[in-house]
Design goal:
heterodimer, A: alpha/beta, 2 domains, eight-stranded mixed β-sheet, B: alpha/beta, Rossmann fold, four-stranded antiparallel β-sheet, 13 helices, 12 strands
């Protein structure tokens, strides 16, 4: 696929937080493509850099953080060098963000309707108020809020958590963005409400050809929603593949460990869960070699893993190809130890 | 200690008999006018010594209120709770305080529940001080030993909460609850604020402490996968009522209540093929109901794929009936809806 046919192409993106005393490397040389209608899951633990990645793409990194390199092409156009003003015209229109906590996206003292109208009016100032209000009601219906016309005049506190999250999505999709980045959009919600939000995102992808980056720590949600997945560790994508690969043949030892430590109905063996030992590395003091090596059941005692940064290895598994940053990717996928 | 005489009584450590909890809240937009809201409605259940008893359900189902009522951190509006045969309602403050040593609470948020000005050791020591146990040296030694049991060193014990990660703080919260050697511990979403890799560590810790100390757990969770992994028996709550109680394997293999079925099949599982699985899943209708506008019949009726609109479901509240050994469900049409799940189930 040509670069300008992609919804989003990210090349060598790096972001640091410079506190004066130390430099935290939040995103390290990340590259990936996103096709229209693609649903990419980005999984990782807190501190792996997944939220910093989202903010970097949107140009929302705040000091002392800054993007130090890379290219972000939105439908072929590099948006990484734009001014704040130019970015403002794109954000919310061509690329939008939904956060975990919908309350932070909604102003408690403004009605739901006026907030949606505002989101529309920013990008279409010539639109009449009454027309914008009608569009707002349509959007509420689109996100399954019943009695939408009446509920436009409600305040956020009159909505349940699930409804507020759907309103946040309504605002994010008000201008039919090409790319929607959803950062833990269902984490604060109950499972049945979670399912409703995912169904809503399905419709968005199908009807508007939106591409979605879903950031989550929940591998179950990745399986339920995504077509591709990137496992993030210490600021890098350590494994990128089609969605089923990660469940059938997780190749990076970190991906495998992450998958094994969550209870699931197929692996209810008695006895303790195989927890990952140790802690994620301090991003200001990254170890040499592979960042996962100190915790890695495979590479902990292998000198190469501590001295040499693994390049990306392309392997073919039972569910297609994967790009894996592990020295032993080929051996692992073919079933040979380590 | 109260020596129980019959084997059944010996096995039951905590029993709720028809308990209800009504809160007075301000109604809607009209300031000043109060309204009675029934948050727990006639709940009966018993917890056996040594087991992990799970309370699951969506937010607002009353699971945390129920847990607080079980320890009389909240007073009941009706019914009674027996702890080891003693009716908690009959105890005065001193007697209740003495009994509290035997029942402890671990909260969800390890950030909010630890005093930021105290060292880890002082935090764990505090309950011993409150209950006037041992002298200063013995208390410090017990606190350090307990911290070691949860995997924190004497060096770490000197630090304050902000120096610890979320998982380590939850370990301190666990040490504080367990240092009194309680018999029952209520775990209110103890891992949901933690990262997945840390969740596994804390679950493993809770499991091994239970084995070591012979503890009874009441485990509150909105995550059914975790409840399935951790609990021996599980009660499913909806709008302050028990919908179903069953041994773990029985509930997850043969759920009888449509609400349990909906809840179980809504859990995304980390296995291949989730998209197809989700497409075939039954969906509960609409939003979680409200305890303020509780329907007269089954509380789940307005959302129920089986009973919605059926006259009996709308008009008549189904009693909690026994369907198999230890398996109870409150439904007029139990088992009519079957579960769609990935993977097998541990029997």
């Amino acid at each position: 696929m040509q670069l300008d046919e992609l919804a989003l192409a990210v090349r060598n993106l790096s972001t640091v937080y410079d506190t004066g005393d130390e430099t935290v490397q939040a995103v390290r040389d990340v590259s990936f493509d996103l096709r229209p209608t693609e649903r990419l899951g980005v999984v990782g633990e807190s501190g792996s850099g997944k939220s910093a990645l989202a903010l970097s793409i949107l140009g929302l990194i705040e000091a002392p953080g800054r993007v130090v390199g890379g290219e972000i092409r939105l439908a072929g156009r590099d948006i990484s060098k734009l001014t704040d003003r130019e970015l403002g015209a794109i954000r919310g229109k061509e690329i939008a963000l939904v956060l975990q906590d919908p309350s932070s996206a909604l102003d408690p003292v403004k009605t739901i309707g006026s907030q949606i109208v505002e989101a529309i009016a920013v990008h279409e100032p010539e639109l009449r108020r009454s027309a914008a209000r009608k569009r707002a009601a349509d959007l509420l219906r689109e996100v399954d809020i019943s009695q939408a016309d009446r509920r436009l005049d409600d305040y956020p506190h009159q909505y349940s958590g699930g409804m507020r999250q759907r309103v946040a999505i309504a605002i994010a999709i008000a201008n039919n963005p090409r790319v929607l980045i959803a950062d833990e959009p269902t984490t604060a919600l109950d499972v049945t409400t979670q399912a409703q939000v995912l169904a809503l995102l399905d419709r968005l992808v199908e009807e508007h050809r939106t591409a979605v980056i879903l950031i989550t720590h929940n591998l179950g949600i990745v399986s339920d929603f995504c077509d591709s997945v990137a496992v993030m560790y210490a600021g890098r994508f350590v494994e990128t593949s089609g969605v089923d690969h990660i469940f059938l043949a997780p190749t990076h030892p970190y991906s495998e460990a992450l998958l094994k430590c969550v209870p699931n109905p197929e692996r209810l063996a008695d006895g303790p869960l195989p927890a990952i030992t140790g802690f994620p590395p301090d991003l200001a003091r990254l170890p040499g070699g592979c960042s996962f090596a100190p915790r890695c059941p495979v590479g902990r005692d292998i000198a190469q893993c501590h001295s040499e940064t693994p390049s990306s290895h392309h392997v073919i598994g039972p569910a297609g190809t994967a790009a894996v940053e592990c020295h032993f990717a080929e051996q692992r996928i073919s079933g040979h130890t380590p | 200690m109260n020596e129980a005489t019959t084997p059944t009584a010996a096995a039951t450590i905590l029993e709720a008999e028809s308990i209800s909890k009504v809160f007075q809240v301000r109604g809607g937009e009209r300031f000043g006018r109060k309204q009675a809201v029934t948050v727990l409605d006639n709940i009966s259940l018993s917890v056996q010594r040594g087991e992990s008893f799970g309370l699951v359900g969506e937010s607002g189902c009353g699971k945390s209120t129920l847990a607080r009522c079980l320890l009389r951190l909240l007073d009941l509006s009706a019914g009674r709770v027996l702890f080891d045969g003693v009716d908690l309602n009959t105890l005065d403050r001193d007697a209740l305080r003495a009994l509290r040593r035997r029942m402890q609470f671990v909260f969800q948020d390890p950030f909010a529940s630890l005093d930021p000005r105290m060292s880890a050791a002082a935090i764990v020591e505090e309950p011993l001080l409150i209950h006037e146990l041992g002298d200063q040296q013995e208390r410090r030694a017990a606190a350090l030993e307990m911290l070691a049991d949860v995997g924190l060193t004497a060096e770490q014990a000197r630090r304050r909460p902000h120096a610890f990660s979320g998982g380590q703080r939850q370990r301190i919260g666990i040490a504080r609850a367990f240092v009194l050697r309680p018999e029952v511990v209520i775990l209110d979403e103890p891992i949901s604020a933690l990262d997945v890799s840390v969740q596994a560590q804390v679950l493993n810790l809770l499991g091994s402490l239970q084995e070591q100390l012979g503890l009874t757990y009441v485990f509150i969770s909105h995550d059914l996968a975790v409840a399935e992994y951790f609990c021996d028996r599980v009660a499913v709550l909806y709008l302050g009522q028990v919908m179903e109680i069953a041994p773990r394997a029985e509930l997850f293999a043969r759920p009888l209540h449509p609400y349990s079925v909906s809840l179980l099949s809504a859990v995304p599982v980390p296995l291949a093929g989730g998209r197809a699985r989700r497409a075939n899943r039954p969906q509960p209708i609409g939003e979680v109901g409200s305890v303020v506008e509780r329907p007269p019949g089954c509380p789940f009726e307005p959302r129920c794929p089986v009973g919605r609109g059926r006259e009996i479901c709308r008009g008549e509240r189904p009693p909690l009936k026994r369907h198999a050994e230890g398996h109870f469900a409150a439904c007029h049409f139990p088992g009519e809806m079957t579960v769609h799940r990935a993977g097998g189930t541990r029997e």
